[in-house]
Write a structure and sequence with these properties.
Organism: Bradyrhizobium iriomotense
Pfam family, one: Pyr_redox_2
Protein name: Pyridine nucleotide-disulfide oxidoreductase
Family: Belongs to the NADH dehydrogenase family.
Radius of gyration: 22 Å
Strand order of the largest sheet: 5-2-1-9-21
CATH superfamily of the largest domain: FAD/NAD(P)-binding domain
Number of helices: 9
Distance between the termini: 29 Å
InterPro entries: FAD/NAD-bd_sf, FAD/NAD-binding_dom, NDH-2
């Protein structure tokens, strides 16, 4: 028997841990039930931190922990999924093809930044969506002092006033002052088509965010979107032109394209609709988790968001349930009633909310300390000690106040 997990992000990592845990509990040898994790690199990219400087440091190697729990790492990129034959075709790092059969499959392929066909976006836009793109942005920022001191050199436009856009924008003044010098006067502008900043966060957190933007000098252009990009700036839908040599696109994400190969229903974000066990209905042997899945968190209508907070716990349930089916033991319905947000606001601190209604419970330095703990401790892989690593992915484990394991 073999379980194949596609993806080494937060959901894929915890799916592997949880699957190995249940296999261990039932005394099944790895030779009897192989767990294989497929990804281009045996590395977890700490994606929630890619808005920070030095993004090349924001990774965690997984080989030690995978070896400790007897999970087989398969280096390569999953190219095709044949759900009828139950095989995955993989393109290896050497450019060859490899076919991997499965008894159960977990699709944990994550999400990608949504890039509409806006003139100039592909040529002139930056992002913090992937490690390579975050590194490219960081190198670009570091090179700005070498450029002619034209009016747009010190200006950064961030397109998207949601979670990622706000974190990227509020981090930017300090990053630019470090690059240009403390006396520099950088200009940072958030552009969003909605009439208010942070449209998905609700009324309670918004005054805190608005005050932080004022404190940092971050401008907003609301009710407009970027119509085109040039090397020297952007033109908005209302006709305004902003001279800027740095434009960061942070306007929405979609499930990774591989989900489209699973013949099942998807939502507007491309996520596979799953049942409470995280199975893909109508497709035998296939589970989906993390950003690849639209999953109900509770019985009152809340659904998992595309975030590492939900991906870690969803991964633990998907791994457990896929192995449970292979071993013929009961599954555990996914549930995640607790929900928090912790939004970094740069030098203005942070914002911590609890509940789906996002009630503000911490702001400023206290929230910043919690955010730093989440970013540097909570979301990193467990140590490569077998018992502790397996225990970290127990789906019955109660989450703490941060909403993480």
């Amino acid at each position: 028997m073999r379980l194949v997990i596609i993806g080494a992000g937060f959901a894929g990592m915890y799916a592997a841990l949880s699957a190995a845990r249940l296999r261990d509990i039932h005394g099944v040898y790895p030779e009897e039930l192989e767990i294989a994790l497929v990804s281009p690199e045996p590395t977890l990219v700490v994606r929630p931190r890619l808005y920070e400087p030095k993004p090349e440091t924001l990774t965690a190697h997984l080989l030690d922990v995978l070896n400790a729990i007897d999970v087989v790492y398969v280096q390569g990129r999953a190219e095709t999924i044949d759900t009828n034959s139950r095989v995955v075709q993989i393109e290896t790092a050497k450019g060859t093809r490899r076919t991997l059969s499965y008894g159960r499959l977990i699709v944990a392929t994550g999400s990608r930044l949504f890039r509409p066909k806006i003139p100039g976006l592909a040529e002139h836009g930056f992002s913090v969506d992937s490690l390579d793109e975050a590194v490219a942005l960081d190198k670009h920022l570091q090179s700005l002092p070498e450029r002619p001191a034209v009016s747009g050199r010190n200006t950064v436009v961030v397109t998207g006033g949601g979670f990622t856009g706000i974190e990227a924008a509020t981090e930017m003044p300090a990053r630019l002052r470090k690059i240009f010098g403390k006396s520099a006067n950088p200009r940072v502008i958030i552009v969003d088509r909605n009439p208010a900043i942070a449209p998905d966060m609700g009324e309670d957190p918004r005054p805190v965010i608005e005050e932080a933007l004022r404190k940092l000098g971050v401008e907003t252009r609301l009710g407009a979107c970027v119509a085109s990009l040039e090397e020297s700036g952007v033109t908005l839908s209302n006709g305004d032109h902003i001279e800027a040599e740095t434009v960061i696109w942070a306007a929405g994400i979609r499930a990774a394209p591989l989900t489209a190969q699973v013949p099942a229903e998807r939502d507007n974000f491309g996520r596979l609709l799953v049942d409470r066990d995280l199975r893909v209905p109508g497709v035998a042997g296939v589970f989906a988790t993390g950003d690849a899945a639209r999953a109900a968190c509770d019985d009152v209508g809340n659904y998992a968001l595309m975030s590492c907070q939900h991906a870690t716990r969803m991964g633990a349930f998907a791994g457990n349930n896929a192995v449970a089916e292979l071993l013929g033991v009961p599954t555990k319905p996914y549930h995640q009633e607790r929900y928090v947000t912790c939004l970094d606001l740069g030098e203005a601190g942070a914002l911590f909310t609890t509940g789906w209604e996002r009630k503000v419970t911490m702001v400023g330095d206290a929230a910043k300390k919690t955010k730093q703990e989440i970013n540097t401790v909570w979301i990193y892989p467990p140590l490569a000690e077998r018992a502790a690593a397996l225990a970290s992915a127990n789906p019955d484990r109660v989450t703490d106040v941060t909403g993480f394991f």
